Amino acid sequence: MPITLTVSTSSLNLMAADCKQIIANHHMQSISFASGGDPDTAEYVAYVAKDPVNQRACHILECPEGLAQDVISTIGQAFELRFKQYLRNPPKLVTPHDRMAGFDGSAWDEEEEEPPDHQYYNDFPGKEPP
């Protein structure tokens, strides 16, 4: 099935070329690995992505002759650009003081209960550990 592959710094999108139906849309932060262009399998690109339904899955794309290296290079460039964007604008660190701002209650129930007395299989009074 011919597909259209769109790679950006935010996502990798697979769309059926004939009917324009989206097959997959993986955000870049959900892609943990990408590989392609090996001499034995020069026409294949593979990447591992996480999605809410299938957890992690390996997606394998068969590319027209000579395009696998271009595809994997493009994915690599997208990761590199995304990382450079991150370095230019890193997220603000949340300090414990910031985390507690506006918080006026207790995170725990008001009445503190004694923890239950657990019976452990190796809890023998007077027995010395090995």
UniProtKB/TrEMBL annotation:
Name this protein carries in UniProt: SHC1 isoform 9
Organism whose genome encodes this protein: Pongo abelii
One of the GO BP terms on file: intracellular signal transduction
GO cellular component, one term: plasma membrane
This protein's UniProt keywords: Growth regulation
Top-rank taxon, per record: Eukaryota
Molecular function GO terms recorded: receptor tyrosine kinase binding
InterPro entries according to UniProt: CEP152/SHC-Transforming, PH-like_dom_sf, PID_Shc-like, PTB/PI_dom
Domain called PID: residue spans: 1-110
